[in-house]
Write a structure and sequence with these properties.
two-stranded antiparallel ribbon; 326 residues; 2 domains; mainly alpha
């Protein structure tokens, strides 16, 4: 922030330079616009004052971070890449730029110009912080939305209880991110965020309904392919899968599943090594649904497409706002 720099430092910086320090950049740092002083310069740190900032040096004297020797003046066009691409802009190179910049003929600042320059730097710093806040807010929002899609089929879940825990964690993180967008975002960004939230809600509902069944089906598939001393386990798993198919066929007929069919499938599942009681319950419940698994998969794919479309629209709008943010 401009207030971190002493009046003496501002006088030294602007008194020793007239143009941006970036090589071959002819952008003036200060000029008169219809008699008013206009400052286009931005104060850049050679070594960042922030722990995770560009070119931060933990051994550098903290008292010198905002001093003349660790600062140089850049135009707005070149300040951003110098900090964003720190790996290709070294401390040594920036110090060379500073040496060349301070060899320029600067200007002697009048008493009234110093407060104007400080005020202008404050405004630029505030805008930079605002853009950084928006970028962090919107990146966090997108990152918080993605787990809903990852967890839709329980792909990372051990069982239904673990899936439920994941969804609860997802919602908590997403609600925090959503609250930040509501605080920081303009109206159209909020509309995009609400659309993403609705898609996350649809994905979470799908996961809570179908996820436990798919986790259990995965366990059954693993039982069918698991190496075993004999081939009894494979036969048991295949027989159980056949009986689940009979249950599913009876369920999609529109009426209740006959008790004998349900009981035979339950018995077959209990013979499969590695299936827990929860797996058996979830498999039977999944197979007994009136809608087919094909319908459930189609619904899931549609929900995913809607989610990715809404998130893409949010990210596109976010980039557009960052480009014009004051």
């Amino acid at each position: 922030m401009g207030r971190s720099y002493s009046e003496k430092t501002i006088k030294l910086l602007f008194g020793s330079a007239s143009r941006c320090a970036y090589p071959e950049c002819a952008e003036p740092l200060v000029f008169k616009d219809r008699g008013c002083l206009t400052v286009v310069a931005q104060v850049a740190h050679i070594r960042s004052e922030k722990l995770n900032g560009p070119r931060h040096d933990p051994d550098y004297d903290e008292a010198l971070l905002d001093s003349f020797e660790n600062l140089l003046l850049l135009c707005g066009k070149h300040h951003l890449p110098v900090d964003q691409h720190e790996s290709i802009y070294s401390v040594e190179e920036l110090e060379d730029w500073k040496a060349i910049q301070t060899a320029q003929t600067g200007r002697i600042l009048s008493v009234g110009e110093v407060p104007e320059i400080i005020a202008a730097l404050e405004k630029v710093a505030h805008a930079q912080e605002r853009r950084a806040t928006l970028r962090t807010t919107w990146e966090a929002f997108s990152a918080a939305a993605l787990p809903f899609c990852d967890h839709t089929q329980g792909a990372t879940s051990r069982d239904a209880e673990h899936l439920s825990e994941q969804l609860i964690t997802d919602w908590r993180a997403f609600n925090v991110a959503m609250a930040a967008v509501l605080r920081e975002g303009p109206e159209d960004m909020i509309e995009h965020a609400v659309a993403v939230r609705d898609c996350c809600d649809a994905l979470a509902r799908h996961a809570s309904i179908y996820g436990p069944g798919w986790i259990a089906w995965r366990a059954l598939d693993e039982a069918r392919t698991r190496p075993s001393p004999g081939y009894i386990a494979d036969v048991s798993a295949s027989w159980a899968q056949y009986n689940l198919g009979v249950v599913a066929q009876a369920a999609t007929g529109g009426g209740p599943v006959p008790e004998a069919v349900y009981a035979e499938a339950s018995t077959a599942l209990r013979e499969v090594e590695g299936l827990t009681p929860a797996h058996i319950r979830d498999l039977l419940e999944d197979a007994s649904r009136p809608e087919s698994r094909r319908t459930a998969v189609a619904d899931l794919n549609a929900a995913r497409d809607n989610f990715y479309e809404a998130l893409e629209q949010f990210d596109t709008a976010a980039l557009a706002h960052l480009a014009i943010a004051p």
